[in-house]
Amino acid sequence: MLTDHAGLSRFERLLTLFTRVRPGEGRSAFLFFLHGFLLLFSYQVVKALREAFMLTKFPAEVRAYAVALIAIIWGATFVVIKNALADISPIYFNTVRMVLAALCMVAAAWFMFRGASSS
Length: 119
Description:
The chain is an all-alpha fold. It contains 4 helices and no strands.
């Protein structure tokens, strides 16, 4: 453990109870933990909304196929990203990825809500 706490913030000193911390690493550690928390929190919120939407609008069989499709897409994503980053820059790849995701979301929203009333 690091015994010299000179130059460490209060949060960094707290982190020294669990691991070695150099001056200035506290901010990165905090942002990392915040990112993980927000990711898990948003997943739980979206999961609850998705489950409620899927169960009220579609039968249970469609829900099972949708979950299987999501698992296949997420499983293939790693291989696709690894191969794509060998050929193009990460910024360009993420730009294309986000544009395609936005188009898919707009198409899905249009498909799901095209018969909804506009009141």
